[in-house]
């Protein structure tokens, strides 16, 4: 198993920045990629960004491209989501997740392990 713990959420104003962190533990050698998803109140959980663990290739949702940056620190088993120019519509619970196999990044069922989520609230 892989355990994931997110941190870094909070309440910010529109235009501000936040950096989320997700620390992985356990069978981290099995990780092919890590992703960030988000779920706004009353909405489905949506893909935000992903990164392959060894190669560092990235993928972003159109809604965050150019504002969010995903990165990873392999020795620390940590993935980050730097969020700039935040908007009220970015308000959501943000989850990190791991996937074991290559393939697509944008569907929840591609991912095996999930963290508990961290709340991001952006006020206007």
What is the terminal-to-terminal distance?
40 Å
In N-to-C order, the SSE pattern is EEEEEEEEEEE
Count, helices: 0
Quaternary status: single chain
Strand content: over 45%
Structural class: mainly beta
Mean pLDDT: 96
The gyration radius over C-alpha positions equals 13 Å
Helix amount: under 10%
Show unreliable segments: none
Please give a handful of descriptors for the protein shown.
four-stranded antiparallel beta sheet, seven-stranded mixed beta sheet, 124 residues, globular, 11 strands
Compact summary:
The protein is an all-beta fold and 124 residues long.
Task: Characterise the protein shown here.
By secondary structure, the chain is mainly β. The protein has no helices and 11 strands. It has strands at 2-7, 10-13, 18-26, 33-39, 45-52, 58-60, 68-73, 78-83, 92-99, 113-114, 118-123. Strands 2, 4, 5, 6, 9, 10 and 11 form a 7-stranded mixed β-sheet that branches. The chain has a 4-stranded antiparallel β-sheet with strand order 1-3-8-7, with no helix packed on it. The model has no long low-confidence stretch (mean pLDDT 96).
Write the layout of secondary structure elements.
Elements: E1 2-7, E2 10-13, E3 18-26, E4 33-39, E5 45-52, E6 58-60, E7 68-73, E8 78-83, E9 92-99, E10 113-114, E11 118-123
């Amino acid at each position: 198993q892989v355990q994931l713990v997110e941190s870094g959420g909070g309440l910010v104003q529109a235009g501000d920045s936040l950096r989320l962190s997700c620390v992985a533990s356990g069978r981290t050698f099995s990780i092919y990629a890590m992703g960030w998803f988000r779920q706004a109140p009353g909405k489905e959980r949506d893909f935000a960004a992903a990164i392959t663990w060894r190669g560092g290739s990235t993928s972003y949702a159109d809604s965050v491209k150019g504002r969010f940056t995903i990165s990873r620190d392999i020795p620390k088993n940590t993935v980050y989501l730097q969020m700039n120019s935040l908007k009220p519509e970015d308000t959501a619970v943000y989850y990190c997740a791991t996937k074991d196999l290559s393939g697509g990044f944008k569907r929840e069922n591609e991912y095996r392990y999930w963290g508990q989520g961290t709340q991001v609230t952006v006020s206007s």
